[in-house]
Write a structure and sequence with these properties.
The protein has about 425 residues and is α/β, with parallel strands linked by helices. It is about 60% helix and about 10% strand. The protein has three domains: about 130 residues, no CATH class; about 120 residues, no CATH class; about 110 residues, no CATH class. The chain is built from 17 helices and five strands. A hairpin with a 2-residue loop joins strand 1 and strand 2. The protein is globular, with a radius of gyration of 27 Å.
C-alpha cells in the first residue's frame, strides 16, 4: 500500500484568502521525522518558497510529522490541526463503555440496512411518504477517522427511529432496536456533542479567517458543554469526559502565540476571550515587539542614507558616540510611545460584529493603524486546520482518472496545481501557511 504526503499553501491577497496545491508526494521510505522533513524542505526548494516567508505549518497530531516540522521550520512555526484535535477529544468520550456499546448497536443497524436491499427499499418508501420527498432520507454510516460522522449517524438515527423500529420489527433476523433508555441516552449525548460538531464545521473552511476563532471557540465549547443540564447517567459520563479532554488538549491554547496574536488582532474578539491575564499580556508584548521590529527596519533604512551625507560634515568630538546613543534612545522611546498608542487606540475601538470579515475591517483601519495592519494581515490569514490538504486526495482522484492512469508524480503535481488555481487570481506573491 502506497503512502502520500499532501501539501497546500494558503495566503491572503487584499481581503480574500486563497490556497494553492503544491502537490501529493509519494513516500517510498519509512515515515521518519528526518525523511519527512527532507521532503518538506524539497517542496519549498522546488517552489522557491523562502522559509522566512512561512508563518505557520499546520499538520495532524502524529508524532513523526510534528517532529519533522520542528526540524524543517522550527518548533514555533508548528500548530496542530484544530479539527484533528477535536476528533481526538470526541474519541476520548468513547472510553465510556456504555456509550461505546450503544454506538456499536446503532452502527450494526445502519450496516444491516445498507446490506439488505429489501430493508433499504422499505426505508426509502417509508421516509419518502413520511417526509413527502421523492428521494427519501438515508441512514448515515460512521467513519472511524471522522468523529462527526458518528454524530451525524446518531442524529439521523434519532430522526428515523420510529420508522426504523417498524421495519426492524417485521424482520426476525434484523438487529435488535435500541431500548427506550438507550434512545434517551443518545438524545442527551447529542446535546453534549453538538458544540464539538458546530466548532468542527466552523473551522473547516479555507476561504475565511479561522486562526482568530480558535480561542473563542474553545471557550464557547467549554461553556456550552459545562452548562448543559444532563440527567441521563451515561450522557453525564460522556459530558465529564468531553470536558476533561478539552481541558487536557486545549487548556493552554491561550499560550499558543500565533493564535493569541490572531485573536487580539481580530476586531471581533480582541482580548475578550482570554482567561489567563499572563497569556494576554504576552500576546500584547509580542505584537508590540513585531511593531518595533518593523519600525526599526524602516528607520535603519532612512538612517543609512542620512549618515552617508552627514559623515563628512561632522567635526571631531570625543562625545560623538554618546550623542548618537542619546539620539538613538530618544527615538526608541518616541517610537515605543507612538506604537503603543496605535495598539491602545485599536484596542479601544468598538468590537466588530461576528458576521463581519475581519480583513474587510482591517482594510478600513489600514490608514489609521498602518503598523498593526501588516501584522494583522499576516496572522489572520493563517488557516488552522489541515482539512484542505486532506481534501486534496479527493481532487487527486478527479485528476488521476482511468484515462490518466499512467501519470507520473511530477506531472500529477503540476496538474493538481493548475486545477487548484482560482480563475480570478493571476500571480501568487506570498506564501503564508503550509497545511499538511
Amino acid at each position: 500500500m502506497k503512502s502520500f504526503l499532501g501539501v497546500t499553501a494558503h495566503f491572503g491577497i487584499d481581503i480574500e484568502l486563497h490556497s494553492v496545491t503544491l502537490g501529493v508526494y509519494e513516500l517510498d521510505e519509512r515515515h521518519t521525522s528526518d525523511y519527512l522533513s527532507e521532503i518538506l524542505l524539497k517542496v519549498c526548494q522546488d517552489w522557491k518558497i523562502d522559509l522566512e516567508n512561512v508563518t505557520i505549518v499546520v499538520t495532524d497530531n502524529a508524532a513523526n510529522i510534528v517532529k519533522a516540522i520542528e526540524l524543517a521550520f522550527g518548533k514555533r512555526k508548528h500548530i496542530p490541526c484544530f479539527a484533528h484535535t477535536l476528533n481526538l477529544v470526541a474519541e476520548g468520550t468513547m472510553i465510556c463503555t456504555e456509550w461505546r456499546n450503544i454506538v456499536s448497536k446503532v452502527k450494526s443497524i445502519v450496516t444491516w440496512f445498507k446490506q439488505s436491499c429489501i430493508a433499504s427499499d422499505e426505508l426509502h418508501k417509508a421516509t419518502a411518504a413520511a417526509m413527502e420527498t421523492p428521494a427519501g432520507v438515508k441512514l448515515i454510516q460512521s467513519v472511524d477517522t471522522r468523529w462527526n460522522s458518528i454524530y451525524y449517524m446518531m442524529q439521523r438515527f434519532l430522526e428515523l427511529r420510529s420508522l426504523l423500529n417498524d421495519i426492524l420489527f417485521r424482520h426476525p433476523r434484523a438487529p435488535a432496536m435500541l431500548s427506550a433508555s438507550e434512545i434517551a441516552t443518545v438524545t442527551s449525548v447529542i446535546v453534549v456533542l453538538r458544540p464539538l460538531e458546530a466548532a468542527t464545521k466552523e473551522i473547516s473552511g479555507d476561504k475565511y479567517c479561522t486562526s482568530s476563532k480558535i480561542m473563542p471557540l474553545v471557550r464557547c465549547m467549554l461553556s456550552k458543554i459545562t452548562s448543559a443540564v444532563i440527567e441521563d447517567p451515561v450522557a453525564k459520563e460522556v459530558q465529564k469526559l468531553a470536558i476533561n479532554e478539552l481541558n487536557k488538549r486545549m487548556g493552554s491554547i491561550e499560550h499558543v502565540t500565533a493564535l493569541a496574536v490572531a485573536c487580539i488582532l481580530d476586531p471581533r474578539f480582541k482580548k475578550m476571550h482570554f482567561n489567563d491575564a499572563i497569556a494576554c499580556s504576552k500576546a500584547v508584548a509580542k505584537i508590540k515587539g513585531l511593531m518595533m521590529k518593523k519600525n526599526l527596519q524602516t528607520n535603519e533604512e532612512i538612517e543609512s542614507d542620512s549618515d552617508k551625507s552627514d559623515k563628512n560634515e561632522e567635526a571631531f568630538s570625543l562625545w560623538t558616540d554618546h550623542h548618537k546613543l542619546v539620539h538613538h534612545n530618544w527615538k526608541i522611546n518616541k517610537s515605543e510611545n507612538v506604537l503603543s498608542d496605535e495598539l491602545s487606540v485599536y484596542l479601544r475601538t468598538p468590537v466588530g460584529r461576528l458576521n463581519e470579515n475581519p480583513l474587510e475591517i482591517w482594510r478600513d483601519y489600514k490608514i489609521q493603524f498602518p503598523k498593526l495592519y501588516k501584522i494583522a494581515f499576516k496572522y489572520l490569514t493563517i488557516v488552522d486546520t489541515s482539512v484542505p490538504s486532506e481534501r486534496l486526495f479527493s481532487q487527486a482522484g478527479l485528476v488521476m482518472t482511468e484515462q490518466r492512469n499512467r501519470l507520473k508524480g511530477k506531472r500529477l503535481n503540476k496538474l493538481l496545481f493548475l486545477h487548484s488555481i482560482e480563475k480570478n487570481i493571476g500571480i501568487y506573491k506570498e506564501k503564508n501557511v503550509l497545511a499538511l
